[in-house]
Amino acid sequence: MLPDGLVVRSARPVAGGSANPVWWCELDDGREVVVKVARETQPDLSEIEAEGLAALSAQGGLATPRVVTFSPRALVLEAVGTGELPPGDARFWADAGRAVARLHAVRSERFGWQRDGWLGRFRQRNTWDADGHRFFAENRILSFLDKPGAEAALDADDRAGLERVCAKLRELVPDTGASLTHGDLWRNNLIAGNAGEPVFIDPAVSYVWPEVDVAMMLFEGDVPDSFFAAYQELRPLHPDWREHARILHLREWLSMVATFGPDPERVPKIRAVIRDYA
């Protein structure tokens, strides 16, 4: 599993690796690293994630773990802090909010990225496009509908409803331009660094609307208001951004349904968005 030259003395699983197993390892030379294991169907996952972490750090100024090495089967990162998130720490979340706002100041005239990436177990299409609504509709919503899990979970009315939402997207979500985004910014993709600072992990990088990142912070809840308040000190959000978030969450709900199939929690949420916005 590990690239040549690395020998593990001990290892323990790290919680949160639903798409890919993650291990906290002590090497035989005493170093501690985190190892993310790629599936056989994802031979370029490690390389793409390493590139994404580098872009977030070099271009966006985010704190990210240092990449030790990678191979087609594993990404090896320096171990940061304890790997755990300090729940409810207002200062931590305020620092994170300002860091994300600074990231979003990095702009592009086009939406997309230099190569396709991964979101969970699926390719994330990043073909460059000057039209943000078309980019999001085609690459972040409709692209999941042909996956077996989504086909099993959603019926013809659901698919038609999602197509109607996409057709109305210009009316529903404002075009705020393309910013450099983390791309999978839910609360478990932040950890506390050695000095308690926010460190960002597991990106799915692209240039897209900055609200996509902010909306993800609402996805699982439990993110303190200090994050959103600090973000808006630097980048004020649209007054209806929380409403927009329900639509932007379609990408994540569809990704999960595509992965896990019919689900009594996720499918009703997708149908609620269709009911309210199609």
From TrEMBL:
InterPro entries: Fructo-/Ketosamine-3-kinase (IPR016477), Kinase-like_dom_sf (IPR011009). The lineage of its organism: Bacteria, Bacillati, Actinomycetota, Actinomycetes, Micrococcales. It comes from Gryllotalpicola protaetiae. Belongs to the fructosamine kinase family. Keywords: Kinase, Transferase. It comes from the Bacteria. Gene3D superfamilies: 1.20.1270.240, Phosphorylase Kinase, domain 1, Transferase(Phosphotransferase) domain 1. Pfam families: Fructosamin_kin. Transmembrane segments: none annotated. This is Aminoglycoside phosphotransferase. GO terms for molecular function: kinase activity.
